[in-house]
Amino acid sequence: MTRKAKLYAKARVNPRGLRFAEFVALVKAFGFAFDHQTGSHRIHKHATIGRIVNVQPASDGKAKAVQVRAFLAIIERYGLSLEDEG
């Protein structure tokens, strides 16, 4: 199992347990590219589906669970898959 696949599994099992850096890596692994940042809000956009993902750290340095769950819903809705590792 690749590192990206492990992160995806971790996010699905426990969205609250994902560190912010892990969440950003997971967003990028599904083909979202950094678009812009306003304050702590980092916006990533997917070129194919045109959807954006708002990513911001919680005060404890972890990803916000609501954002992780919303991201997982986008993955399911559009049938996105992990990009090749490398």
Question: What do these coordinates show?
Answer:
The model has no long low-confidence stretch (mean pLDDT 94). By secondary structure, this protein is α+β, with helices and mostly antiparallel strands. It has 3 helices and 3 strands, in the order ααβββα. Helices cover 41% and strands 20% of the residues. The chain is globular and about 30 Å long. The protein has one domain (3-78): 2-Layer Sandwich (Metal Transport, Frataxin, Chain A), CATH 3.30.920. The chain has a 3-stranded antiparallel β-sheet.
Which terms would index this structure?
single chain, 86 residues, alpha+beta, Metal Transport, Frataxin, Chain A, 3 helices, 41% helix, globular
Give a brief description:
The chain has 86 residues and is an alpha+beta fold. The chain has helices at 3-13, 20-29, 65-78, and strands at residues 32-38, 41-46, 52-55.
Ordered list of secondary-structure elements with their pairings:
Blueprint: H1 3-13, H2 20-29, E1 32-38, E2 41-46, E3 52-55, H3 65-78
Antiparallel strand pairs: 1-2, 2-3
Helix pairs in contact: 1-2
Shape: globular
Q: What share of the residues does DSSP label as strand, in percent? A: 15-25%
Low-confidence segments, given as residue ranges, are none
Strand order of the largest sheet: 1-2-3
Output mean pLDDT. 94
Name the CATH superfamily classification. Answer: Hypothetical protein
Rg from C-alpha positions? Answer: 12 Å
The helical percent reads: 40-55%
CATH class: Alpha Beta
Question: How many β-strand runs?
Answer: 3
| Euclidean distance between termini CA atoms | 14 Å
Domains counted in the coordinates: how many?
Answer: 1
